[in-house]
Amino acid sequence: MSPNFGAPPLDGDSSYDQKGFMAHVDRIKEYIRAGDCFQALLSRRIDVPLDFDPAD
After folding, report:
1. Residue 49 in contact with residue 13, Cβ under 8 Å?
2. pTM to 2 decimal places
3. Tally of CA atoms within 13 A in the half-sphere of 7 that contains its CB
4. What's the pLDDT tens digit per position in 11-41?
5. What total of structural domains would you count in the chain?
6. Within a domain: residue 53?
7. In this structure, is the dihedral angle defined by the CA atoms of residues 13, 49, 5 and 45, taken in order, positive or negative?
């Protein structure tokens, strides 16, 4: 069962490309192996242009 939102998905611009994202994943793995952290959250921003005000 898939929800029908009535609108097609929009294209967005990510703050990471695949290569950059994976480089940061490898860096986090190094921190974990070194014992500097045991958990990390790598997030990214996705900008999607809108032709309406989302607050409306």
Report:
1. no
2. 0.63
3. 4
4. 888 888 899 999 999 999 999 999 999 999 9
5. 1
6. no
7. positive
